[in-house]
Amino acid sequence: MLWDGIARRNAGAGGGGAVEEIKPPVERDARPKVKIGLALGGGAARGWSHIGVLRVLEEAGIVPDVIAGCSIGAVVGGCYAAGKLDELEAFALSLTKRRVMGLLDFHFSGAGLIAGGRLQKLLDQDLTDQRVETLPIKFCTIATELVSGHEIWLTRGPLVKAMRASYALPGVFDPVLIKGRWLMDGALVNPIPITAARALGADLVICVNLNGEVRVRGTVIQSYDAEQSDQQEIEEVIEEAPRKWSLFSASRADKQRKPNAPGMATVMVDAFNITQDRIARSRLAGDPPDVMVAPKLAKMGLFEFHRAQECIALGRQATERALPDIRELLQETQEA
User: Among 23, 38, 155, 315, whose CB has the most other CB atoms within 10 angstroms?
Assistant: First the structure.
């Protein structure tokens, strides 16, 4: 054998000394490690399901190398990257309707209904010294610049400020000023940032679509009659309408005139949700993920932050369903 011959020649060169065993080098897999990316989408309170997704991946030994988050996905992803997911989960599970309302500092002099200072203080308690570029996992948040509509990838700077810019829902939270740019919710331009995860080096991207099962799949209703519906039809609409909890409800007088009339916040958020769904479908068609996790969140209202336990469980269930596909794809990518 080749290595036996080398050993004999070395022994002969040494003047008949003892034969020194020469071992062949240890064979190592020269293939680079598959870099896993997570694209965590926006969806307000539905975003608590991201926690369940991350828990299942963690239990399966699947650790992301890259996380790109938008809106609530930026908050959960940032806390995970900073090693603070336990604290975030404990906070989410502690929320009640009353406590959620207590965290919202309403004002009418800014560009949004909520200043966001109380939420920032909560984030600052655990993340005040954290910077995006020094996190152990490569991370970025997505924001949208006012006026220009530029898609901004926040890959450096204070983590909490990057999160706030990404979840600044127009009309609800005040926009955030960063280096001369007023930034708001990234879901306006890239609700599920698969492109960002790939650009940051991910070979395989798992996305979490919080609107994948939500019933806003619009279609075209032709020749709809604008005449006022009769009372029976109104009652049927009320019965079939999904239960929601919004920040504001329509007034009692308005409800008497218009049964099931939505409140101001419901109108704003639902309009945003419809827009986000259309944009997400377009972006997913142009740059599909390798695996999509879509929790069944149709019955979860956008402001129902107090239902964290249900949301987390739904995230776990969706990820467990997708886990065989994720493992198979990882193996195929590693063998390629």
Answer: 38
Question: What does the alpha-carbon distance between residue 301 and residue 326 come to, in Å, rounded to a whole number?
Answer: 29
* CB-based contact 297:310 (threshold 8 Å): no
Region 304-311 average pLDDT: 94
Give whole-number Cα distances, 140 to 45, 101, 104, 137, 156, in Å. Answer: 20, 29, 26, 10, 8
Own/partner pairs, 5-10, CB within 8 angstroms, 24+ separation? none
| Residue among 276, 283, 128 nearest 195 (CA) | 283
Tell which residue, 139, 115, 128, has the closest CA to residue 87: 128
Q: Is 71 a catalytic residue?
A: yes
pLDDT mean over 238-261: 51
In the structure, what pLDDT confidence band is assigned to residue 237 with cuts at 50, 70 and 90?
Answer: very low
Buried b or exposed e, range 36-67, using 16+ CB within 10 angstroms: bbbbbbbbbbbbbbbbbbbbbbeeeebebbbb
pLDDT at 62: 95
Residue 29, amino acid = D
Q: Render pLDDT for 151-210 as a digit per residue (tens, 0 to 9).
A: 999 999 999 999 999 998 887 788 999 999 999 999 999 999 999 999 999 999 999 999
Q: Which position among 71, 166, 174, 290 bears the catalytic label?
A: 71
Q: Which residue has the higher pLDDT, 117 or 4?
A: 117
How far apart are the C-alpha atoms of 251 and 254, rounded to whole Å? 5
